[in-house]
UniProtKB/TrEMBL annotation:
It comes from Alkalidesulfovibrio alkalitolerans DSM 16529. This is dTTP/UTP pyrophosphatase. Belongs to the Maf family. YhdE subfamily. Its main location: cytoplasm. InterPro entries: ITPase-like_fam, Maf-like. The keyword Cytoplasm applies. Nucleoside triphosphate pyrophosphatase that hydrolyzes dTTP and UTP. May have a dual role in cell division arrest and in preventing the incorporation of modified nucleotides into cellular nucleic acids. It catalyses: UTP + H2O = UMP + diphosphate + H(+); dTTP + H2O = dTMP + diphosphate + H(+).
Length: 201
């Protein structure tokens, strides 16, 4: 695979998500993975999904940046919101079935907050929202999907890039955002910080 961009400094991804890792790897950028270990408390009051995801992303990025002061640290957090509820990762298969039932046949918001913390300047934070509409395949199909185990480490209990793709009727906005990282926006911000540039530049 030919690289499209190259890093001009040490880059650290503060996430253990294999989906985020794969998206960044696709650009050819060299980076290290140092997952954040900070807790993820529930939203505060009437906090909007984008605001909560951005706050969590910044918290994760700052935790890792404190240990790697010479690096650009990228933090991210993804939440799913439907009917006034925010959905994180299900705790078990039953919780996954519950979440899938809430999403079935409806439109929901996938919000990913991002924080890029450079070694010499203020953090850049932003959030990207994508509207996703699901089919309703019925409780038996949802239970069968939950039983695959795929939903257990996914916000909203489904993987659009995996078996869960059969649930998705339409996507309005960034597809990679639903996977877990709004790649175009992260890249634009990293370029503006001077931490990556095209290999032909």
């Amino acid at each position: 695979m030919h690289a499209i961009y190259r890093a001009t400094m040490d880059i650290v991804l503060a996430s253990a998500s294999p989906r985020r890792l794969e998206l960044l790897q696709g650009l050819g950028i060299s980076f290290r993975v140092v997952p954040s270990t900070c807790p993820e408390p529930p939203p505060e009051g009437h906090e909007k999904p984008e605001a909560y995801a951005m706050r969590m992303a910044l918290q994760k990025a700052l935790e890792v940046a404190a240990l790697h002061p010479g690096s650009l640290v990228i933090g991210a957090d993804t939440v799913v919101a439907v009917g006034g509820q925010m959905l994180g990762k299900p705790v078990d298969e039953a919780d996954a079935r519950r979440m899938l039932g809430l999403l079935a046949g409806r439109e929901h918001l996938v919000a990913t907050g991002c924080a890029l913390v450079p070694p010499d300047g203020p953090a850049r934070t932003f959030a990207v929202g994508t509207r996703v509409t699901m089919i309703d395949p019925g409780p038996a199909a949802l239970a069968a999907y939950a039983a695959t185990g795929e939903p257990l480490d996914k916000a909203g209990a489904y993987a659009i890039q995996g078996q869960g793709a059969f649930l998705v009727r339409s996507v309005e906005g960034s597809y990679t955002n639903v996977v877990g990282l709004p790649l175009a926006e992260v890249l634009e911000t990293a370029v503006s910080l001077g931490s990556v540039r095209p290999v032909k530049d």
